[in-house]
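Model the whole thing, not chain by chain.
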Amino acid sequence: MQRLLQIFVIFKEYVILTLLIAISLILLFNNDTPQIRAIRSYTVGFVGLMQDMLSLVPNVIELKRENEVLRALNVNLTDEVSRLREARLENLRLRGMLEMKPHNEYKVLPAEVVGKSLHLLRNTLTINAGESDGVKADMPIISDEGLVGKIIVVSGHYAVVQMVINKDFRSSAKVQRSRVDGILTWDGGDVLHLRNVAKKQDVKTGDVVTTSEYSNIFPADIKIGVVSNVTEQTGTLFKDIDIIPSVDFASLEEVFIVTALPDTERTSVERRATVGK
Amino acid sequence: MGQQIKYLFITALLILIQTQAMRLLSLEGMTPDILTIWVVYIAIRHGHPTGTIWGFIIGLAFDLVTGNFIGLSALTKTICGFIAGYFYNENKEVIILRSYRFIVIVLSVSFIQNVVYFLIFTQGTNIGMTRAIFEFGLVTTLYTAIISLIPMFIFSRKTSR
């Protein structure tokens, strides 16, 4: 024992280093355990509260500018709502004639962004809505400009959103014009990427990209962005498609939570099919 | 004990600045890592064990606050504190902290830390490790080293009085 203590004293720097690295690695490999998720939930609640308090400091100039923008937007939206009502009625009539199933309508819950963590490749937002508002992990987040991300951690009154510009983010997406679908990813630049699109598929610069019906998390037809560049590299079967996101992530202040959860029946049947392969 | 509380308070303040204010200094999405500068400072002032332990505490606190991968910053900042501890010299700590040597230490420690960070970070992604290290890691390292001029000048002025 004495000898062991002596060794510890002599090599204490290395013992401490090894111990702390081991703890870090254990934490790293157990990120998805309920205990770690509970700790994250508590810290998100605490940090969210702090960020909320900090955001109480009003920015008069910003508020004035926002007010002007909102007034202009209100005029445009009023006009658009009336045109959309007409279109909806027409759509219902035509769907009835074709006996097609209507799209699922989803409810949205407004929330304010109380914190942003733009840390290299894992960008997240903290919003002031949590479990008490019915928010759950995996719920999609949108803004008036398009898709923002999805909820990854929830506490009582706050939630952390994994943004589209996060290297862990994945979603199925489609080109609105040609209905070509692929997988939406981001790897650190100014643009998003649509992967797994075969070279023969029809995608052009300027095409609008939206979420697709294949996603079990995101409702279809939420705008993601516009195709800015399409290249065909030799040696691969797929196109390289760049998308400029429609959302300005740097200036996001208000978002909407789509209170829709993945369809469990669909997930279950898809999982059974995968297991059965 | 008093000093530990002071360090805890400064750590909390720096994490708040890193998460809330550093994006104002963002260049193409890259922000300086002021927590690395803080870990290097502690290691130079107190040596290996203290630097390593504080590196772990600061990294873990940052992981918890940002809601990211818990353990990743704890791991990199622990290594950062340990390496910076090699530059500890009881009789020369003031000389190191007020000279260009501090910048060089921050630069080298930050680079090693970023290599470890991206080695783990890029696993299972389409992002190439080399690309991540040179495109993100190197820029962050240089930016952090430039920002470390501020504490160096402050310390230099403080000790020359």
